[in-house]
Amino acid sequence: MALRFRIDPSTGAGHSDSVPRRTGLAGMKGFILPLALVALVSACALPVSQKPASRAALASTSLPAAKAFSAPRPQPPQRANRDIARDFLDLHFRLEGGTTLPVFTRFEQPIRLRVAGAPSQGFQRDLNQLLQRFKHEAGIDIQRVSSGPVEITVQAVSSRAIHRALPKAACFVVPNVDSLAELRRKRRSPDTDWSRLRSRDRLAVFVPNDISPQEARDCLHEELAQAIGPLNDLYRLSDSVFNDDNVHTVLTGFDMLVLQATYAPELRTGMTRSEVAAVLPDLLSRLNPAGDSIPARALPATPRSWITAIETALGPGSALNTRKRAANQAVLLAQELGWSDHRRAYSHYVLGRMIQAGDPDLAQRHFQTAIDFLGQTPGSALHQAIIRPRMAAYQIARGNGEAALQQINPVLPVASRHENAALLATALLIKAEALDLLGQFATAHTVRLDSLGWARYGFGPDWAVQAKIREVAELRPSTN
Which structural domains are found in the chain, ordered by start? Predict the structure, then answer.
């Protein structure tokens, strides 16, 4: 069973610090319930102050409506077409667990989509925006209909209903069904096994209607992309949602190029890997001419030993000491393999998370090492932005507002550009604490107010937003 992890923007790691994971069952993938929003600040090993009256009032007042990002700003792929061809083949002809797929599949007929169930607030807007991206960026016109036969059914149901179907999943896609009831009837049928799929005719995407708007949107992006495109995830991809580190939460320029190529006229269902490989060079030259002039930089494959170490470190079900050892093993393996890319950085980041509660100083050194490796990696701004809130929180806990601002300010434009509201809200709250430390109280209050709409989109209900506000506020050292 393949695992998929999603980085959260929490500021501390005072408990076992597990993260959500995605699982694959015959190719089906989904998130489990999110990590608790309130991270214990014992990781900072300092006493905390009482919340100022203004901050306490902020946490108890009614919150504004969720904000929404405007037009997407995906960056075109910045890699060689030769490398993209290799990625395309591995994404389409393997499953996450390593199973080889014998033929290429896609929808060969016009795609109609129907939404069923009770979608959450903001769901329809995010789905419509995603369908527009498919049309304008990938040339895939998916028509929404309200009745009649469809190729894709998006079912908005409760998390509890999804967990009854797949206990470790929170959203997933499965072929040849259109409801959870049909999935239960076909549980052991070859029809629902991605490895036996030879054509795509009908499938269903199941998304919870009781999670935050951002989580629901992320589910839509990943599951619909899998429904119409690649079935695999690759750790070596730094610029894609098709990566188990889940740094990217919305489809990237690379992802849209892969989907555009998937539906190019040069390809068709039933082609073998060698047949697809033969037409890819000319196909990618046509779709992405800039990629022909970029030097190849093919990263080595990711060995199963490293993946297992990462999965053990981040997955639930193991004792904290076991997970720490696994995280340390991932760092050692990355060193032995001679990596200097985002996977090496990710290894240090995960280890830093595992040890942050007991040794925050050493954890910061691992975070800095991750940043140093990412500094050598083109297109790693989002990866760095996910690490920096923890480094800024460390400085807040020590009363160093200036150092915290230096860490957190670069996060804001990156989180916005990549449409990560949870990360953006967390960064704004941390910035407000840093400004308070510097005596800039009016500016801090304005920044906190700005964070609330993003927090509503990123974290959802009032209680979750208020928990995040308290979590960040409690990072500050006592003034007694």
Answer: 3-68+301-473 (1.25.40.10), 81-292 (3.40.390.10)
Which range (115-124, 141-150, 205-214) has the least confidence? 115-124
Q: What is the pTM of this model?
A: 0.89
387 phi, psi to nearest 5 deg: -85, -35
How far apart, in whole angstroms, are the C-alpha atoms of residue 375 and residue 385?
12
Q: How far apart are CA 421 and CA 457, in angstroms?
A: 6
Token digits for 98?
Answer: 């390593």
Strand partners, 23: 3, 30
Give Rg (Cα) of the chain.
22
The structure tokens 């967390």 sit at 426
Q: How confident is the model at residue 244 (pLDDT cuts 50, 70, 90)?
A: confident
Distance between CA atoms of residues 377 and 375, nearest Å:
5
* Model confidence band, residue 144 (pLDDT cutoffs 50, 70, 90): very high
Query: How remote is the C-alpha of 403 from its chain's centroid?
Result: 28
How is 228-270 classified by DSSP, letter by letter?
A: HS-----TT-SS-SSSTT----S--HHHHHHHHHHTSTT--TT
